[in-house]
Amino acid sequence: QLQLVESGGGLVQPGGSLRLSCAASGFTLDYYAIGWFRQAPGKEREGVSCISTSGARTNYADFVKGRFTISRDNAKNTVYLQMNSLKPEDTAVYYCAAFYGSCTRTVYDYWGQGTQVTVSS
Questions:
Q1: CA distances in angstroms from 5 to 21, 42, 90, 107, 112, listed in the order given
Q2: Residue 106 — very low, low, confident or very high, per pLDDT cuts 50/70/90?
């Protein structure tokens, strides 16, 4: 079965950290740029970060710059999102998506099921 599986979400206090993982099953991530997205209740989905196929290029939404870091380990077929200095407004379901070739593509090839991140004291 070809799928992306996110993990690593949970409940964390403001200022805390979490590391999300996005693992591919049934296919290799080598040829895919990977994006992280999030959706909070009652809000539209928004892009968080994206990483190129090689990992050489990354981009971040302004609201996470300096706090989140995206990385990938193609040998493990996994992409990570390290989230530091978390804020209550970071609470959302986080999804990863695979885009063949580039982060500039607007149509995804694979979409994960999501992992809940809750930032609360």
A1: 8, 24, 20, 19, 5
A2: confident
